[in-house]
Amino acid sequence: MVPSSRNGWALLALASVVLTLAQAATIRDVIAYRAGNGPQPTDISKLTAEIITNDGYPVEEHQVTTADGYILTMFRIPGGPGNPPREGKNVAFVQHGLLCSSADWVILGPGKALAYMLVDAGYDVWLGNARGNTNSRRHIFHDPDARNTDFWDFSWHEIGFFDLPAMIDYALQYTGQTSLQYAGHSQGTTSFFIMTSLRPEYNQRIRSMHALAPVAFMSNLRSPFVRAFAPFVDQIDWMMRMLGVNEFLPSSEMMTLGGQMLCRDEALFQEVCANVLFLIGGFNSPQLNRTMLPAILANTPAGASVNQLVHYAQGYNSGRFRQFDFGLTLNLIRYGSIRPPDYPLERVTAPVALHYGDNDWLAAVADVRQLHSSISNSIGLFRVSDPAWNHLDFTWGIDADTLLYNRVISFMDRYN
């Protein structure tokens, strides 16, 4: 049963207070630990490379610099215990969603996580990280932590136009391949459609694309987070700029410690942590492994630009999949029109499979169908059979391997 909006917001407020108190209670220990004057306060969960190594798979870290100066980190898993690295493997590139990171694809563990399943199926797997997240907070000029920095002056438009092409080009050049398989979740699908519509030459480098919870059109989303702030997006954007706040929910030791203390097994507030996640993407309690919550919160949120949230809210308000709205004057200067242009989805010619869930509060079925009708080379619409399948189940669902990932890999194999 979905709670009323009043109860939902009360739950969010409670969770916020609890996390804040937990952070305040441990801040002295964290400061001492950072300064080398005390022990690590708790068992902080591992990040992507450490997770992969601990799971017994080889991992490589690669950096690529985008055309506009962002330094991005990718993790490569070239083989596994039963499938050693070798030259000539088919390449699979996997891209995370908003506020997430490459950790999403390994956190479920061997035999369950998409990255490991792809490796075990014989793929050379590359995990991308968009600008601004935990692994990609560097630029050749700009400091992400400076007060009036230009580092955060981007939305998911730039991720699609600059980041994805840079990472895909690097992976292909490094492996000697000319095309690859692509899987993305949420914003990882949004940015893909930007790349292939505005830079259509990249369609030829994609053997097949698997859109997990695809987000382009957003008129029918049900998430209370977006619906609450969308009507005030212009005022929020202006206020954040005036305050010099450009980063949204950065990753921190505090969030990690809060997750460890409040969300671990037998913790009093573990169910509050679970319900906060449900309020974002939809309720599906049986698919969330509560034991994983500390590890999830150690890696998520991974940080993002405020403009990424603003851009999604603009899409909800306008009902269109279009470029960032800078306001009438700047739109005239940048686009030559008072409104931003739509993304030309008719230029997306790569084979695209759209995987959706009935209970996805961010990628509503009606919006996914509209996207399906807007692209010319759709492999098809593929429903996850669980009627309660939500937005976050695509990465963290207990049964994601059997209900989703096996199908994705099967399709990839057909398009090699």
TrEMBL record:
Instruction: Tell me where the signal peptide lies.
Output: 1-24
- Pfam (any one): Abhydro_lipase
Q: Which GO terms describe its molecular function?
A: hydrolase activity, acting on ester bonds
Q: Which InterPro entries match?
A: AB_hydrolase_fold, AB_hydrolase_lipase, Lipase_euk
Residue ranges constituting the Partial AB-hydrolase lipase domain according to the UniProt record: 48-107
| Keywords assigned by UniProt, alphabetized | Glycoprotein, Hydrolase, Lipid degradation, Lipid metabolism, Signal
Gene3D superfamilies assigned to the protein according to its UniProt record, in alphabetical order: alpha/beta hydrolase
Coiled coil spans: none
Query: Where, by residue number, is the active site?
Result: S186, D360, H391
One Gene Ontology biological process:
lipid catabolic process
Q: Which family does it belong to?
A: Belongs to the AB hydrolase superfamily. Lipase family.
The entry's protein name is Lipase
